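Reopening closed ticket. The problem is back. First fold of the pair:
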Amino acid sequence: MKLLKDIRFYKFLIPSLIGAFLFVLPVNENGNLTIPIAIAAHKLLAMMGDFTLLIIWALISGSAVLTILHRTLGISCLKKDPKLNALFNVQGFWFWIRMIGFLFANMIYFGIGPEFIIGNATGGLVIHDLIPILVCVFLLAGVLLALLLNYGLLDFFGALLIKLMRPLFNLPGRSALDCVASWLGDGSIGVLLTSKQYEDGFYSKREATVIATTFSAVSITFSLVVISQVQLEHLFLPFYLVVTVAGIAAAVLVPKLPPLSRIPDTYNTAVPHREDIPEGMTSAQYGLELALKKAENAPGIGAFLKEGLENVCEMWFGTLPVILAIGTIALIIAEYTPVFKILGIPFIPVYQLLQLPEAELASQTVIVGFADMFLPSVIASSIESEITRFVVAATSVTQLIYMSEIGSIIMGSKIPVSLPKLFIIFVERTVVTLPVIALLAHLIF
């Protein structure tokens, strides 16, 4: 009863329930399992209608123009805000990636330039099919993620789940919610949540990188799209079970390998937030204590909106150009060069060893998934063997890191991981999950 009289309890409970409803609660829409924030993002996308491409062009162009002006002239209003100053005062590699994104956006918007850049299989795919929903997700998640972060929900569940996540994955308990948000909604939401937690000192460099590359699971909805592409949607339940088992195997093994194992457990803040349960307290008691402390210092409406809008600006102006630039380049390599086909050659004997038919064609799908998750299934749709199509589709879903979206979002975030390391992690995930998937597939077929 004493708890019910504590105003902090309601400051924790009410925003947290709203946040859990938006980001974690599974709901059924048109027969698909998703989360309310994803439904809202698609509604917003429908409202944008014919203005979608114009909005994307304006955001990416605005990012480049403000960056150039701020670097050369120094915009006073941006200098006064540390976050905005850092956002538009980028140097070196990230400056040129932003400029490349700006160049691609103008070429695609005005229809000027070679087909290999602006075509529907490369830049056109990124800007028409991938970025529109991200614009909406970034807007809604940028503002509303604070409901999960700032009012105690992650602190409460982090303490409850630490006895599961620490022994099994050597991660904070709160990382389980990152996975749930990705699994039910979209992997981009999980990456954004992870990035914010790293910035605020709740995750170390190692933990943030492991969570972003391991727990930003592919949503149930997109998994259904993938299995449908290879004409095996009647096997969706065993397919998703196989994906889950292989994903857990990768989550246990890959973080124990370099480069993830060599990333230091250093924090972005001077005082890290650790989830160590004190003696004499249960997980629930400690979680509630942390949640009430968090709620006591929770921001008001004004600070909530200010932080949310800063987050949106960071995602729109900082991340969208990176996604367009890197995603387009990756798809150009996949479509117009034999690079991914050559890189897949070592997997031919692997497929043969796993007794999977049409090994040569299947091997071409392995590395191409680094460019885009959907490409392996498109290639596999021409494979006659059902078991091989099943394995290719499941492998593409468990690889997780693809540069047309998730990989670019990770690189555009504050999570400290380079492109070469992302590729190595991608290959390691493939090597770990492929035998597991093949073994289980032989039990099904």
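Second fold of the pair, where the issue appears:
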Amino acid sequence: MTRFTIQPIHTDFAAEVFDIDLSKKQSSADINLVKEAFWKYAVLVFPDQKLSLDQHVEFTTLFGPIEMNVNTYQEEVKKHRFDYRVSDISNLDEEDNILAENSRKRMSGLANRLWHTDSIFRHKPALASALYALTVVPIGGKTEFTDTRAAWDALPDITKNKIDKLIVEHSIFHSRAKIGFTNFTEKEKAALPPSRQVLVRNIPESHRKALYIASHAMRIIGMSDHEGVALLGELMAHATQPQFIYSHRWRVGDLVIWDNRCTMHRGTDYDEKRFKRDMRRATVSDIGNTVELAS
């Protein structure tokens, strides 16, 4: 019999799941209930977890295959603090010291404070991400999530008809350039060429549509750069209005999993030269490239 509780934070966006221990094997019935909640709320918060790396990964694989963190675009970031199954979302080096101000890993991590969805810049993007908090900061450092399904619903019909079949080109180097980080080698750029994804996604489990955008978006195929950038800016501003946002204040032991297909997220500022922040993210691959799936 299921004994955990799902408490919505908003009516149909973000929920907390209490009285469940993710370090233990879950029953098929409980897994199905967690998945149903995930498809409905898109962001689930599991407080007070005590997970090994293997347990973190095992839970995440309930939603699909792990996206191995091997195709990094920075040679120095290959010095992993964990292993290739997870991404290091911290301000720490491999000796657990706070990163130097001129660290390329630090500079790249600052771009996580822009609104984005994970791996949209890869040919096969991410479906879900599960971020686990080992060390949190006392001030700042929240993660904000925005519901791009609700953002789509709130668009006027004339805009929906205009954008429904559009395709967008994304690059991780585009988002890094926005914060002034452009020092990449040709080898690094070749490791992650631009990808093309649909601008509007159909989410099969919820039967809802969602805007599929991010700070990595460079251009809209078939539009002039000026027109495409303007439209992307308008959609980003629309989708990140306060009524669509859930802001999560981290506690040690929180595991938060979100649906990259219908959310964007960003980290908020904290004193990263003073406080250690240590998190790891396991990411689940989507079933394919969105343009190929749509066609």
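Update: turned out to be a display glitch only; the data is intact. The first helix runs from residue 28 to 41. The chain has nine helices and 15 strands. Please close again.
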